């Protein structure tokens, strides 16, 4: 959780593979790289960008097999830096496509942090808000605090405040109340993995926000790079959900907030069925239902 | 927030009026009692049990006007003690009526604390769970932690653990995920005020749970004494919602968890429209839609 946010995890993994190449000896280069890739792949199960980034780096060094190790190392470092630069460009493209969807003069709501701190920069969901404001729209943002890790309170609120974007912090259980109030014009969140049918795995609580948005006729948008798509999975049911330690729920910066030995569930992500998702905003454009067609079309688009 | 939970607030207010009578001088008894009642009424705006209890005590001492002050004082103390004893009996009756609605062998979900610590004892929502278990049902309970004040983590989890009722603690934003999972057989919550049409004001986040329960075909029940009904209000729209300090959201036991000067909304309650409420469980029986008829019928029933 030191590095979090699906796109940032992807870029960090690419950097990790490049770092592994710099440290690998010439004799056992391939074996060492296999170990590095396996270790990186075992860090987090849900965000598919991790596996996407490792695979991209692996394909590169496998394609260079037989070349001088120095050349392979340089190529991997270049690729990792390219992926970082690409990620910022991708976020800006997501922002451009998404800005059109944000209603002017209304409040937008987001959950968790899909901002500069979850990507190489600019952000996915927060990139959409930034681009909307750059396009002259007057919006403010409600940020869910996002228990248990408080990415909303600690990251999103900080990012938006730093950018001078009006931001109001609420606890997660207030989102429904404000979605019902008529104040919210749209919800935009990020994603950790999107299945072929458009089901979206994202930070725990996203599903609840999506249902509450639909119930109150507020459009619910997901902003994510193409690398978040996992068309190998027919639906979100097969996306692995990371279960995290009970202490994240029962302790708060070391302070105990629940009885000793209480049972806890702590799934880090949930799956929002595609039927609640009004659009998926990518760097190549906006996909709408039926997602099995529109997502495939975006992947083929160059 | 030292005393919280609508029925407990009512009993405490009655005790407060009795205490005021013991302290009132003979010469300015009526004026002093008016001051005491006004001060108690100004403490919390949402839970109607507060006003119900004060009115009941006021009617009693106004009916005794002209009697010796010692007699009035004794009558008020007796009445407050009676209201405490009644509240426990009421909770047990709510439990008996509600136990039938709890599916055997499933998990029940609750929000905030509507337990012994929110009443004079036994509890309303938790009373339903206690009565279901006393009736031989095998259930376990998922408790929402209930930000910002953590009544679920600090009170409900403690109460259930102490009673040996299996309890699992989750953050509020996980409720939707578990309601979707098929594990939850019913939701039972308390109430702070119920309007004539069955709209329910209760702890912030209740509305979200109700929508998510309905979306997943899980019955949503409200357990509350008749004193929680406010038939003077046609709908929940006119129930006053207490707004509390930003620091409850931005600070956690003194620890700052959000940027300085971030804007915060902190409504302590929300309103769940009656259409999401499958039944209202009272000490006089179970009301179902249409609530404008069924609630009136319960009030008239003796």
What does this protein structure show overall?
The structure is a homodimer of 302-residue chains. Chain A folds into two domains: 6-90, Four Helix Bundle (Hemerythrin (Met), subunit A) (Up-down Bundle), CATH 1.20.120; 93-300, Translation initiation factor eif-2b, domain 2 (Rossmann fold). Chain A has a seven-stranded mixed β-sheet with strand order 3-2-1-4-7-13-14, sandwiched between helices. A four-stranded mixed β-sheet of chain A has the order 8-5-6-12, covered by helices on one side. The first copy, chain A, has helices at residues 6-23, 29-41, 49-63, 69-99, 125-134, 151-162, 175-180, 206-215, 247-250, 291-300; strands at 107-110, 140-144, 167-170, 184-189, 193-195, 200-203, 220-223, 229-230, 251-252, 255-256, 263-264, 269-272, 279-282, 285-287. By secondary structure, the first copy, chain A, is α/β, with parallel strands linked by helices. The first copy, chain A, has ten helices and 14 strands. The two termini of chain A are 33 Å apart. The model of chain A has no long low-confidence stretch (mean pLDDT 96). The radius of gyration of chain A is 20 Å and the shape is globular. At the A-B interface, α6, β3, α7, α8 and β11 of A face α6, β3, α7, α8 and β11 of B.
CATH-derived topology of the largest domain in chain A: Rossmann fold
| Parts with pLDDT < 50 across at least 5 consecutive residues of chain A | none
What would you say the CATH architecture of the largest domain in chain A is?
Answer: 3-Layer(aba) Sandwich
Strand and helix order of chain A: HHHHEHEHEHEEEHEEHEEEEEEH
**What oligomeric state is this?**
homodimer
* H/I helix tally of chain A: 10
Look at the helices and sheets of chain A and give the structural class: alpha/beta
Number of strands of chain A: 14
Computed Rg of chain A: 20 Å
CATH superfamily of the largest domain in chain A: Translation initiation factor eif-2b, domain 2
- Main pleated sheet of chain A: 7 strands, mixed
β content of chain A, as a range? Answer: 15-25%
CATH class of the largest domain in chain A, named: Alpha Beta
How many structural domains are formed by the residues of chain A? 2
What coarse outline of chain A follows from CA principal-axis ratios?
globular
Report mean pLDDT of chain A, rounded to a whole number: 96
Largest interface: A-B, 50 and 50 residues
């Amino acid at each position: 959780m030191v590095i979090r946010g699906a796109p940032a995890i992807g870029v960090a993994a690419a950097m990790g593979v490049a770092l592994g190449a710099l440290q690998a000896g010439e004799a056992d280069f391939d074996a060492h790289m296999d170990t590095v890739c396996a270790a990186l792949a075992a860090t987090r199960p849900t965000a598919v960008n991790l596996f996407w980034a490792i695979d991209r780096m692996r394909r590169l060094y496998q394609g260079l097999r037989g070349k001088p190790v120095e050349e392979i190392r340089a190529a991997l470092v270049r690729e990792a830096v390219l992926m970082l630069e690409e990620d910022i460009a991708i976020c800006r493209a997501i922002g451009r496509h998404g800005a059109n969807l944000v209603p002017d003069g209304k409040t937008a709501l987001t959950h968790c942090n899909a901002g500069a701190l979850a990507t190489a920069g600019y952000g996915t969901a927060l990139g959409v808000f930034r681009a909307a404001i750059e396009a002259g729209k007057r919006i403010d943002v409600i940020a869910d605090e996002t228990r248990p890790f408080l990415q909303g309170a600690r990251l999103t609120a900080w990012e938006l405040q730093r950018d001078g974007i009006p931001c109001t912090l609420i606890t997660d259980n207030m989102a429904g109340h404000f979605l019902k109030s008529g104040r919210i014009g749209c919800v935009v969140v990020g994603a950790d993995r999107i299945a072929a049918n458009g089901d979206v795995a994202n930070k725990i609580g996203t599903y609840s926000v999506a249902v509450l948005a639909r119930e109150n006729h507020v459009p619910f948008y997901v902003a994510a790079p193409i690398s978040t798509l996992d068309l190998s999975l027919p639906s979100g049911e097969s996306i692995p959900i990371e279960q995290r330690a009970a202490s994240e729920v029962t302790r708060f910066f070391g302070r105990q907030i629940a009885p000793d030995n209480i049972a806890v569930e702590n799934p880090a992500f949930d799956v929002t069925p595609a039927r609640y998702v009004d659009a998926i905003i990518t760097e190549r454009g906006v996909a709408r239902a039926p997602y099995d067609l529109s997502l495939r079309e975006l992947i083929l688009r160059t």
